[in-house]
Amino acid sequence: MALTGAMTASPPSTRDKIMRAALECVAEDGFSAATTAAIAKRAGVAEGTLYRHFDSKDALFVAVYSRIKEHVFDSVMAETDASGSVEDRFRQLWRGVWNAYRADPAAFVYGQRFGEYPLSRQDSRPIHDGFVRHISALIRDGQSGGEIREASASVLRAFFFPPMVSMLKQAIAGHEWSQAELDSAIDTAWDSWRRPR
Amino acid sequence: MALTGAMTASPPSTRDKIMRAALECVAEDGFSAATTAAIAKRAGVAEGTLYRHFDSKDALFVAVYSRIKEHVFDSVMAETDASGSVEDRFRQLWRGVWNAYRADPAAFVYGQRFGEYPLSRQDSRPIHDGFVRHISALIRDGQSGGEIREASASVLRAFFFPPMVSMLKQAIAGHEWSQAELDSAIDTAWDSWRRPR
DNA sequence: GTCTATACAGGGATAGAC
DNA sequence: GTCTATCCCTGTATAGAC
Q1: In this predicted structure, what is the pLDDT of residue B7?
Q2: Chain A residues lying within 8 Å of B24, measured CB to CB
Q3: Quick check: pTM over 0.90?
């Protein structure tokens, strides 16, 4: 039940059930299949009930997206400390985000789909937006200390999340990444940031 | 008029106009807004005409996707030669794909959206599928020659297209990449593949 | 081959009882 | 707050004239 009401042991509220149902419908068959009827059925409530909790179907989708972003950010930050070397912080962040998404693949897929859905103009901040400041700080520290190459932060950022996201997609499609592959992915990512000699 | 009827100087056929209209509708406002009415209007034909050329709306979408893949692949391969060092081939391929997508941003966006659309199960080969063999050959050559690190090919591949795709998305969203940034992106990509010392 | 007109289904949203 | 029943619109697809 990760990402919706996960923190509380109490039974999920109707609102939570609706949000989780919407998330799963979209993750399984895309936005076009996520009709109000399908969502209500999966949540175990009547169709009309959706509109007691959300102004519209679109508002529901946006709310789900926001909650996913918050949850992933919080859960990564909870197990990340800002101490240690730049390289350690880099590796820790990489693993943290990876684990957060692996813990709830449906939420990950929802986020991906939402990003290509026109509705995303209403919450246009990308899924990893919360991490941008964090990553930028890492880059700044690493560049002033000489560990990280002198490329623009936007270029370096393109080598952090995108390869990971691509690997997550493959994992969800059934590809089993070995521990050695994961380690080497992190090594490869770090070597892309590292100052070359 | 790239990607649909671009090679011929003759006026586009009705079929081509429909395909291009579908491509642009999806690129601009997503699949949910790409109704048969919208597509027909943009193509300048009647709605019923769509069904003279395609069995269904979905068949149209799949046909457009296939054509994009073909076109990008062909146009990259046309200006790429397999000679030169592994590093040269790497850089050439990176630039070739980048340029192909920059030449038709709408086609690029269509490809991205299609990948998150459930219909993609009907043509589930990813957008860059044609390049996988090419890239795998590059990796094999580079690993046997010692230029490329000994990571699994699937890990290395995650550092080729995904960062580029991320940068293309930003470019389409209005971000202007300087020549220096592009060069350093390619350097960074290559350093992620390169054998570290 | 293309158009106009239309049949038919399905989806979002609301009304009103409980 | 939740359910049932229903309205209305939009979207896909077809029929048939030209």
Answers
A1: 55
A2: none
A3: yes
